[in-house]
Write a structure and sequence with these properties.
This protein has a single domain, classed as OB fold (Dihydrolipoamide Acetyltransferase, E2P) (Beta Barrel). The chain is mainly beta and 157 residues long. It contains two helices and seven strands; from the N terminus they run αβββββαββ. It is 11% helix and 34% strand. The N terminus is likely disordered.
């Protein structure tokens, strides 16, 4: 008679937390947040946190692209933008990595999951989409300016 091997309870819980999607296995605990309706933002610079990436297929030509999701820190408004899968020194994806503080140079290996939780500034404008609906569009990405602490007598003020 063979003894039945049982999985430790920790392993069962770990397995239950993993979810399979079209993109592979996601191993991430998530917190349910209040849903925000689409909000058209004024043209401005916004401090935003990178929430994640999904690989999608275009309904127009069947080509693959990346969809990026950001959260504007002050209001919690979600901002979406698309990019190609190309990571070159002239690509939008390259700009995202640089703005989020990564040393992005030719030959550097970068991973999209490392962007999650990073913060940068997004210059958001409004444009009509292909259906004529006004949408937020990210025009440029920039690092967050870090204020240097004052030194000398001004530091006391």
């Amino acid at each position: 008679m063979q003894a039945k091997l049982e999985k430790p309870k920790e392993m069962e819980e770990e397995i239950e937390e993993k979810t399979e999607t079209d993109f592979g296995v996601i191993d991430e605990k998530m917190t349910v947040k209040e849903s925000k309706e689409f909000e058209l933002l004024e043209e401005a610079l916004y401090e935003c946190e990178y929430l994640g990436t999904a690989k999608k297929v275009s309904s127009q030509d069947g080509g693959e692209y990346l969809s990026h999701k950001w959260e504007e820190i002050e209001t919690g408004t979600f901002i979406y933008e698309n990019s190609s899968l190309t990571l070159s020194t002239k690509s939008k994806l390259f700009d995202i990595f640089k703005a989020c503080g990564f040393k992005a140079e030719q030959g550097t290996n970068l991973n999209l999951k490392d962007l999650v939780g990073k913060v940068c500034m997004l210059h958001v404008i409004q444009e009509k989409d292909s259906k004529g609906i006004m949408r937020n569009r990210v025009k440029t990405h920039a690092p967050v300016k870090v204020k240097k602490p004052k030194e000398g007598p001004e530091a006391i003020l």
